[in-house]
Amino acid sequence: MSSNLLPVRQALRQKLGIDVSPATAWRWAKRGCRGARLETVRVGKRLFVDEQALDRFVRAQQAGPAAAAPAVERSPEETETLKRAGLLSD
């Protein structure tokens, strides 16, 4: 990581224009999202990130279908109920 570190939430706000909760920032750093972890440095109780690490994390989120969650298996009854409710297409 470079020496130009920003707090995670501030970096996301500046670079992407999004505001995430502290819990989301922590989860992305510790558990990741769609198979990619946000590389951070912890200083005291705060998480910091550099621009390159943030770019890698964002690119991993845009990887497409290969990074998507596995399909959910439903019973035929559940499937039919969701279709009737308009929540599932054929």
Describe this structure in words.
With 90 residues, the chain is mainly alpha-helical. 42% of the residues lie in helices and 10% in strands. It contains four helices and three strands. The protein has helices at residues 8-16, 22-30, 51-61, 76-84, and strands at 6-7, 41-43, 46-49. It has a three-stranded antiparallel sheet. A hairpin with a 2-residue loop joins β2 (41-43) and β3. It is elongated, with a radius of gyration of 18 Å. The chain starts with 5 loop residues before the first strand and ends in a 6-residue tail after the last helix. The mean pLDDT is 84.
Please tell me what the overall shape is: elongated
Strand content: 5-15%
Number of strands: 3
* Average of per-residue pLDDT values: 84
**What is the element string, with H for helices and E for strands?**
EHHEEHH
Query: What order do the strands of the largest sheet run in, or round the barrel if closed?
Result: 1-3-2
The largest sheet, given as strand count, sense and whether it forms a barrel, is: 3 strands, antiparallel
Count of helical stretches: 4
Briefly note the structural class of the backbone.
Answer: mainly alpha
Low-confidence stretches: none
Q: What is the CA-based Rg, rounded?
A: 18 Å
Helical coverage, percent range = 40-55%
End-to-end C-alpha gap:
47 Å
